[in-house]
Design a protein that fits this description.
- Four copies of one chain form a homotetramer.
- The first copy, chain A, is of the alpha+beta class and 134 residues long.
- Chain A has one domain: Hotdog Thioesterase (Thiol Ester Dehydrase, Chain A).
- Chain A has four helices and eight strands; from the N terminus they run E-H-H-E-E-E-E-E-E-E-H-H.
- Chain A has a five-stranded antiparallel beta sheet with strand order 1-4-5-6-3, covered by helices on one side.
- The longest helix of chain A is centred in the first third of the chain and has 16 residues.
- The model of chain A has no long low-confidence stretch (mean pLDDT 93).
- The interface between A and D is medium-sized, with 18 and 18 residues.
- Strand 3 of chain A pairs antiparallel with strand 3 of chain D, so a sheet runs across the interface.
């Protein structure tokens, strides 16, 4: 399954007094891209909620390569970096007009009724979709 | 009952590429000041929640007089402008070093178990506290 | 000249603990819609900047009709409500799936080199575009 | 030189529909704590600007240990983790009522007139203050 990159156009209110996109907003763009990616995998937020899956962020890392600013369109590609029994690590690459602006990672676990779940057992379809995503 | 003004120090990420506090943040500062004011009235968020009071914002108006920027300390004073059976209107005055930077208003209704409530009947103590606040 | 409405899909981080879009975000959506509208009028941000036009917000008013939440697509239509010599008032109507969720207004003045400018004289093309926009 | 921890009280608008502080806000709290720490070192933002120092964030990492929510007071302590010729890494520990909620790091370089600067040479007083901070 080949997934489409996500696009975020930087909004005026996302800039700061240096004239660039405030670095905290990249964490939000990661979330946007991740939710879009889940949608593409057939596991949108509504389905996650309906199936009682809660998937908190346990860590984020963001490496800023170049600044961006108002109206820049950031293209985000997202890959599974690691998928263990209970933990998912995603890798993000962000580009503006082909130029690398940011690389990032986020790690997630999955909860089912408040308790950590083994992804492959509890959500086999999601597990398969993530393994096959490119 | 004399209430204390609320102080908000402008954060770096609240500025925009014009170098000033983005105008949307004043709406957030109004909320901070309002929740602090409710606390001072003895009706903090926890008590509101415990008593099942939900008080949504039905409108806001904000008049920008002067720009502010990073590290400015905005002093907010808050008065009851109008208190009808089912609607509360608050007036906000924001100053930096004595200079007026913004005047604003917000209107709220009160819900009890999902239905609009007559404030004086359903929450007499809160009603009295708001009538006496200065 | 017939302009296209603007669409904003509510992001997860725009919701609050009530489960709805935080009311401050509508002020940001107004800005997004306004900048898009200026683009459509042929007066995008870059051109404004290049021509030395600065157009601060002098007031906003927002009337909340219905709550919205994550993934709702808010359609914003924007009209000139009043255009005087030195002041522009815009009216916004926001709908989700045809239902009215918010009406709003913003007022702006125009500065040229730091001083208030008479719009029709200093920016005749922009003035004409705004008068003819629908 | 012993520095004071920084305190951030979580605002209502910083929560999301899960009822907890949205994870992106911790990156902003790190910035608040860092600017406060620079102030305590005698190198506040105004002085940085006056001396032409620009110090962008080159990376951030955030490990979420426990959720926080509205009204929680997050205490942030900040230490120099590494200070090389051209790079500063800071380590953050965030606690609520003594409980660890988040650990984080940020890395910064220093620019002087647009070019990377050797911290100890170009800003010897700041370098010394950072080396001695506890």
């Amino acid at each position: 399954m080949t997934l489409q990159p996500y696009h975020h156009e930087v909004r005026y209110y996302e800039t700061d007094k240096m004239g660039v996109t405030h670095h905290s907003n990249y964490i939000r763009i990661m979330e946007e891209a991740r939710l879009d990616w889940m949608d593409q995998l057939g596991y949108g937020f509504e389905r996650m909620e309906a199936e009682g899956i809660v998937s908190p962020v346990t860590s984020v890392t963001c490496n800023y390569k170049k600044t961006t600013t108002f109206k820049d369109v950031i293209e985000v590609t997202l890959k599974v970096k690691q998928l263990s029994e209970i933990r998912l690590t995603l890798a993000y690459t962000m580009r503006v007009r082909g130029q690398l602006v940011c690389t990032a990672e986020s790690t997630h676990c999955f909860f089912d009724g408040g308790r950590p779940a083994v992804i492959a057992e509890r959500f086999p379809e999601l597990y398969r979709a993530m393994m096959e995503a490119e």
